[in-house]
Design brief:
By secondary structure, the chain is of the alpha/beta class. The chain folds into three domains: about 190 residues, YidB-like (Arc Repressor Mutant, subunit A, Orthogonal Bundle), CATH 1.10.10.690; about 110 residues, hypothetical protein tt1634 (3-Layer(aba) Sandwich); about 130 residues, 2-Layer Sandwich (60s Ribosomal Protein L30, Chain: A), CATH 3.30.1330. It is elongated. The N terminus is likely disordered.
């Protein structure tokens, strides 16, 4: 970036130019805008061209900026647009569908083509970038008469078909050009100085009332190259943050969040890093979102593990949310699952009997990969809790681990599967410290149902691991 002549003189004299950006060029303001758009959209290096294309589009409308604003007013979105203007206390969110309603499919597609943004992401990218651009070009409370020169050069000359003008530069006389440009530049510089002087104030486009989402960290180092995603639902608002591998993942997740909770209810700080691995759990998480509306729910993904916090939820919701994470994310290690059996184990008093032990154990829930005897990663914590309880039972206590299935499929296959699952649990308990002589494994197939095999709920209840004291 070129320095002011004043800065050049200072460098020649062996002195550094002032560090504050307000003493730099107008282009520092443009670079800040590009950086904000890059973080809001995940477009990375393409954000420069994207900003240029959008700025060109805005001012190529009939009546320029005011004509662009009228598009939103006609779509019933005037209030949202006005919240983007400089001086408004907080910018309101807009979603991809509302953008399309205001601009029209043809223009949205044209923007995508000229900016080199995939059509499947353009709506969300526009929703992230337009509020920032509108606020920046109206800094100081002035509605610009034409495209500021600092933005005009970002995308080159573009043809918008029926638009009244493409670029202001060259369409007006030199004198009138400077008459509007110089005041605009002065106002932009003053607004930028004010923003910079606020120290750690939120960056352009961040609502002042927004709070940072809970990271739920415990000192554990983040996995190298691992996707992260933290979620908190509090006060009717959803705060999310994290880092994903691609803009596609980011846009898909943002669209799902805003569709589920409402665009005005979601505060997102999602970064894109190409060195991060794809989130294997992303599609399942998007499908789970409608069931994750419980007030006070928190969770945080780090690679293929997630920490779940349901402590603020009523017990029934804790059970439901934990069951969803357990069942929908079988390949993800879930910590913090609420399990009635684990709670019962924690509540055992010193000197508990063998029968009290098995009563608590039979409330636990362990899961297997579909059609196999492989314990899911989330079941490991429950196994460890069960192992500790068995080890603490009265001397000589022996426990039978029983495998049970529903009645679906071949009876012989179910019998074998029940035996294999019982053996898998017994082996896991032994690996967690329980002496092998205190355990036995037995399969019962579908011969001891506790639910109605004609219903899904009944079949789910029948697929279980049971525990009995061996006499």
């Amino acid at each position: 970036m070129a320095a002011f002549p004043h800065n050049r003189r200072m460098l020649l004299m062996g002195r550094h130019p002032p560090a504050h950006p307000c003493e730099g060029t107008f282009m520092s303001f443009v670079e800040n805008l590009i950086d904000q758009v890059a973080r809001a959209t995940g477009l990375g290096d393409n954000s420069r061209k994207f900003v240029g294309v959008l700025a060109s589009y805005i001012f190529s409308r009939p009546d320029g900026f005011k004509g662009f604003q009228k598009l939103f007013q006609k779509a019933g979105l005037g209030g949202i647009f006005e919240s983007w203007l400089s001086g408004s206390p907080a910018m309101r969110d807009i979603n991809a569908g509302q953008i399309q309603n205001a601009l029209g499919v043809r223009d949205v597609n044209a923007i995508a083509e000229k900016a080199g943004v995939p059509g499947s992401f353009i709506g969300t990218a526009l929703a992230g970038a337009l509020p920032l651009i509108v606020r920046s070009v109206t800094a100081g409370g002035t509605i610009p008469n034409g495209l500021p020169s600092g933005l005009a050069g970002l995308a080159g000359k573009l043809d918008w078909g029926d638009s009244k003008v493409t670029h202001l530069r060259g369409n007006r006389k030199r004198g009138s050009f400077w008459r509007w440009l110089l005041p605009v530049l002065a106002l932009l510089a003053l607004a930028y100085c004010g923003w910079q002087m606020r120290g750690k104030s939120p960056p352009l486009g961040t609502p002042a009332a927004a709070t940072a989402p809970v990271a739920m960290t415990d000192g554990t180092a983040q996995s190298v190259g691992a996707p992260t995603f933290a979620f908190q639902h509090s006060g009717g608002k959803v705060d999310v943050s994290g880092t994903l591998a691609t803009a596609a993942e980011k846009f898909q997740l943002l669209d799902a969040l805003k569709s589920t909770f409402g665009s005005d209810k979601v505060t997102a700080r999602l970064d894109v890093d190409a060195s991060v691995k794809p989130a294997s759990w992303l599609d399942r998480l998007k499908a789970m979102l409608p069931g994750l509306k419980a007030e006070g729910l928190k969770f945080a993904f780090n690679g293929d593990a997630v920490k779940l916090d349901t402590t603020a939820l009523p017990e029934a919701e804790r059970v439901a949310v934990s069951a969803m994470f357990r069942d929908q994310l079988p390949k993800v290690k879930v910590e913090g699952l609420f399990d009635r059996g684990v709670e019962a184990i924690k509540g055992l008093k010193a000197g508990y009997s063998a029968s009290e032990l098995t009563e608590a154990l039979n409330l636990t829930t362990v899961r297997f990969d579909t059609g196999s005897a492989n314990l899911t990663r989330s079941s490991q914590d429950i196994i460890r809790q069960a192992a500790d309880a068995i080890e603490g039972a009265p001397a000589g206590t022996r426990v039978e681990v029983g495998g049970h299935t529903d009645s679906q499929g071949d009876a012989a296959r179910n019998q074998l599967l029940s035996e294999q699952r019982a053996r898998a649990v017994a082996d896991a308990l032994i690996a967690s410290g329980v002496p092998a002589e205190r355990l036995a494994a037995r399969g019962f197939g579908s011969n001891r149902p506790v639910g109605d095999n004609s219903t899904e709920a009944g079949r789910a209840a029948n697929r279980r691991i049971g525990y009995e004291v061996m006499r």
